[in-house]
Design brief:
- The chain is of the alpha/beta class.
- Helices cover 48% and strands 24% of the residues.
- The chain has a domain of 117 residues: Transcription Regulator spoIIAA.
- It has 5 helices and 6 strands; from the N terminus they run E-E-H-E-H-E-H-E-E-H-H.
- The N and C termini lie far apart (38 Å).
Length: 171
C-alpha cells in the first residue's frame, strides 16, 4: 500500500496545500497544526487545496480540510479553492459538504508551484485522537447527513479522550 503525504507552500499571502497519494489521518497532524498557525496570520489572501494527485482521502483529512475552509471564511472572509481531477475524490468532497466552504474546480493544468512536504513530527496517540476528533466534529457541522454518520464515532472518540485524560492525571 502506498502512503501519501501533504506538501505546503506560501507565496504573497496565498497558501497552497497539495495532497499526494493515499492521504490518511496520520498524514495530517502537521497540516492541522499549520492550520492553527494560519489563524494568526493577517496577510492571508487566498488558499488552494490541490487534490489533483490524490488517489485516496479519508474522513479525518476531509474534516481537517473542512476546518481550513471554515476558518478562512470566518477569520479571513475568504473562500478557498479546491482543485480536483479525480471524479471519485470530487464526489466524496461534495458529499461531505466541502462544496459549502470551497470552490471545487476540475483542474487539468500543470502545477508548477514548489511545495515542501510537511513533516509529521511528534505523532502520539493523544495528538492523533485530538486531530481525528476535531476533524469529524467539523464534518458534522457541514450537514445533517454527516451529523448522523459521524455522531457514534465522535461519541466513542470523546469517551476515549476522556479515559486518556483521566489515566494521564493518575500518573
Amino acid at each position: 500500500m502506498s502512503t501519501g503525504h501533504v506538501e505546503y507552500a506560501s507565496l504573497n499571502g496565498t497558501h497552497i496545500f497539495k495532497l499526494i497519494g493515499e492521504v490518511r489521518a496520520h498524514s495530517c497532524i502537521s497540516l492541522d497544526k499549520l492550520l492553527n498557525k494560519l489563524e494568526q496570520h493577517e496577510d492571508v489572501v487566498g488558499a488552494i487545496v490541490d487534490l489533483t494527485q490524490t488517489t485516496f482521502i479519508d474522513s479525518t483529512v476531509l474534516g481537517v480540510l473542512a476546518k481550513l475552509g471554515l476558518k478562512l471564511k470566518q477569520i479571513h472572509h475568504l473562500q478557498a479553492i479546491m482543485l480536483s481531477t479525480n471524479p471519485d475524490i470530487t464526489t466524496l468532497a461534495n458529499s461531505m459538504g466541502l462544496g459549502q466552504v470551497f470552490v471545487i474546480l476540475n483542474y487539468c493544468g500543470e502545477s508548477d508551484v514548489c511545495t515542501q512536504a510537511l513533516v509529521d513530527d511528534h505523532i502520539n496517540h493523544a495528538s492523533m485522537l485530538r486531530t481525528v476528533l476535531e476533524a469529524h466534529k467539523t464534518l458534522m457541522q457541514l450537514n445533517e447527513n454527516n451529523q448522523n454518520m459521524f455522531e457514534p464515532l465522535v461519541k466513542q472518540l470523546e469517551k476515549e479522550q476522556q479515559n486518556l485524560e483521566q489515566s494521564n492525571q493518575n500518573v
